[in-house]
Design goal:
By secondary structure, this protein is mainly alpha-helical. The chain is about 80% helix and about 0% strand. The chain has helices at about 1-15, 30-45, 50-60, 65-70, 75-95, 95-110, 120-150, 150-180, 200-205, 220-225, 225-230, 230-245, 250-260, 265-285, 285-315, 320-350, 355-385, 385-410.
Length: about 400
């Protein structure tokens, strides 16, 4: 914890020491290329969700059609969990630029394969291959952000990255929904769109000259992080995994909660998750300003407190308006918390190990996504939805109180 606090102090002290002026981040073509790449990660899993029913009917002659169709959404996550650490090593060994370019090309090829593959098993295999592309894109993109930016520019881009994922996911899923009304195969065409991104990445993203062994500016303990960085990174990853697992109670359990409370789960889920996504995208735009005022630990405290209030609202009221407000609070809080993991990890990790750090963070996100339904479904069957959401509120509140106490002690 002492090392993490020193990292936070260093991160805040660097706010006025920027490679790129804060206001100029969005005018930097490299930043735009990296943000477009970030939007692909949310697109990977959920884009084909609107087509699942049609795909199940299309391949009804397959003996395991329903089961295999259900696996199409989480399949990329399974590959990411195992491949992200290896992709991180490759990013550090062979360079960021080429891994990013290859990842985007592989994403377009494997993601759109469902347009023409003849059977459901082949489509499932292509979805597993899509996870490898996601691992390459996320690790390379995270490392490049740390290579190109520092201080306030890094914070700003970390917040914009979360916004790009939220808004990109909302756009791609909406587009896929329209296409699915025509044919269950057409949503796979959305995955071919990243081909349009390749020229921008090719022209603007250059391989950075990594400054190996540069001295840490904040004392001996930071200077020794070249050997000790993995411990703080793993602790950050564990916290990120827990945060993601709690957040994913929303997309995995919300449809069933709405159905149990007498609402139409299809339209209700679309409205509530759409509001959550848009709220998170807007909140992430303010991350650099919020963290600049109250620091990284303060941003943790504020974000977790909002999430706790949101889960408490879902637990305490069955009114649709209250559930909508709770979802918005969760989206706001999650968007303030998540950029912290990237900025802190990129500050902790040595420049030549940012790919590995990005791989660890990427793995923790997807492990959290998969763990969430396995942890919450038995609890819901035992104590019900209200107590499960109340327990989530309590856990997140503990995180908020711990972060708040650390922030106060620092002051």
């Amino acid at each position: 914890m002492r090392v993490l606090l020193e990292i936070c102090k260093r991160n805040e002290a660097m706010s006025s020491e920027m490679i790129v002026d804060r206001g100029a981040v969005l005018s930097d073509p490299r930043a735009l290329a990296l943000l477009f790449a970030a939007s692909l990660t949310t697109m990977a899993n959920a884009t084909i969700s609107p087509a699942l029913g049609g795909l199940s009917e299309l391949f009804a002659d397959h003996p395991n059609a329903r089961f295999l169709t259900t696996l199409l959404v989480p399949a990329p996550s399974l590959t990411v969990i195992f491949c992200a650490p290896l992709a991180g090593l490759a990013v550090d060994c062979f360079g960021r630029r080429w891994l990013l370019l290859i990842g985007i090309l592989l994403f377009a090829i494997t993601g759109s394969a469902g347009l023409y593959l003849a059977d459901l098993t082949s489509i499932l295999v292509s979805r597993l291959a899509l996870g490898l592309a996601v691992a390459m894109i996320m690790t390379a993109q995270t490392a490049l952000i740390g290579d190109y930016y520092e201080g306030s520019a890094l914070k700003r881009l970390a917040g914009l990255q979360v916004s790009a994922r939220n808004f990109g996911g909302f756009t791609f899923i909406t587009l896929a929904g329209w296409l699915a009304a025509t044919s269950p195969r057409l949503p796979f065409a959305v995955y071919a769109l990243p081909i349009l991104l390749l020229p921008l990445v090719w022209r603007t993203v250059a391989e950075p000259a990594i400054r190996r062994g540069r001295a840490a500016p904040s004392g001996q303990s930071l200077a020794s992080l070249g050997e000790k960085w993995i411990g703080p990174i793993m602790r950050l990853a564990a916290l990120q995994m827990a945060t993601t697992a709690l957040f994913f109670i929303m997309p995995t359990q919300l449809p069933f909660l709405l159905d149990a409370r007498g609402y139409d789960s299809a339209s209700g889920t679309g409205i509530v998750l759409g509001a959550l996504t848009l709220a998170g995208g807007l909140a992430a735009l303010t991350y650099s300003r919020v963290s600049g005022r109250i620091g990284a630990i303060g941003a943790f405290a504020a974000g977790y407190l909002l999430m706790a209030l949101g889960f408490a609202g879902l637990a305490s009221s069955a009114q649709f308006g209250a559930m909508l407000a709770g979802a918005i609070a969760i989206g706001l809080g999650f968007a303030l918390v998540m950029p912290n993991f990237v900025t802190l990890a990129l500050t902790i990790a040595p420049a030549e190990r940012r790919g590995v750090a990005g791989g660890i963070l990427t793995t923790s996100v997807f492990v959290g996504q998969i763990v969430s339904p396995f942890a919450t479904t038995p609890m819901i069957h035992t104590v019900g939805y209200a107590w499960t959401y109340a327990a989530a509120a309590g856990l997140v509140l503990c995180l908020a109180m711990a972060s708040g106490a650390i922030a106060l002690l620092r002051r």
